[in-house]
Known about the structure:
Layout: E1 2-8, H1 14-20, H2 27-32, E2 36-40, H3 49-61, E3 68-72, E4 75-76, E5 87-88, E6 91-92, H4 93-103, E7 106-110, H5 111-116, E8 129-130, E9 134-135, E10 138-139, E11 156-158, H6 165-176, H7 192-195, H8 206-210, H9 251-254, E12 281-282, E13 285-286, H10 295-308
Parallel strand pairs: 1-2, 1-3, 3-7, 7-11
Antiparallel strand pairs: 4-8, 5-6, 9-10, 12-13
Helix pairs in contact: 1-6, 3-4
Bound molecules: iron/sulfur cluster (2 copies).
Amino acid sequence: MANLLWLQGGACSGNTMSFLNAEEPSACDLVTDFGINVLWHPSLGMELGDNLQQMLRDCISGKIKLDIFVFEGSVVQAPDGSGEWNRFAGRAMKDWVQELSDVSDFVVAIGDCATWGGIPATAPNPSESVGLQFLKRDHGGFLGRDFKSKAGLPVINIPGCPAHPDWVTQILVGVATGHAGDVTLDEFQRPKTFFQSFTQTGCTRNMHFAYKVSATEFGQRKGCLFYDLGCRGPMTHSPCNRILWNRQSSKTRAGMPCMGCTEPEFPFFDLAPGTVFKTQTVMGVPKDLPEGVDKKGYIKLTGAAKTAAPQWAEEDMFVV
Ligand code: SF4
Ligand code: SF4
């Protein structure tokens, strides 16, 4: 039996909504089949008021063993580092986060806000939001660069806006069943099993990418969304086209560009109109190129691809 506690900081609840839709395994399976005891969760917890405060204090004192502490949302430090803008159970949430992280065997950050600070941490960041162990690309975050949970691991980051439900439940099962050692992490502490490949892996528009045939509108059934609509699929580490959403689709399959939500810089650019769903270019070459491709290589590749493009690549295709 592994005790799990889930708290929300500066959050929209999107990751909770996602988690409750998990299927492989489901949130119920965690309890019935994998021995996870959900001590408390904002949407599922039964304790209120003084009882909840007492339970949190019992976790901190060690009276209740805390195996897994899950945090969703940014750590809000405003105003002036006090954290008073986000109070929970009688005190600043950030103080609970610090003390619970210190006593927990594993700490898991779910979603972009908990991992990198997410949208709340985007300048000018009035809530002084940070992620648990990162602020965007900077290692450190709220708990500090050297933080390790009692089991000796840094925060396990499962980013996404929201994180895919099965990424969450599969990692929780791995940790709860004693397989945390099999969870290898990348430089941003993301489990490699999910975040080693790109969104583009498995994208049904790959042949359009190869022949440089572009989609020019959302939802179009032909064309790659990279050239005109700002798709970040070739630069974003995620399995969104391998582990499909709702078991059947993904953004790119539906004709919506990947916005790179699993990367620390999300949201990219300054969110001014015209910067998000439009490929930013310099002299006709995209500013951000597929990982590992340089400008010269890209120009050669696209020239050859355009010349070689067959007629069928221009035809409307069913891509879902
Ligand atoms: S739509 Fe995006 S993910 Fe799919 S092939 Fe084009 S650039 Fe890659
Ligand atoms: S397709 Fe891109 S933006 Fe959409 S969920 Fe996956 S990584 Fe995030």
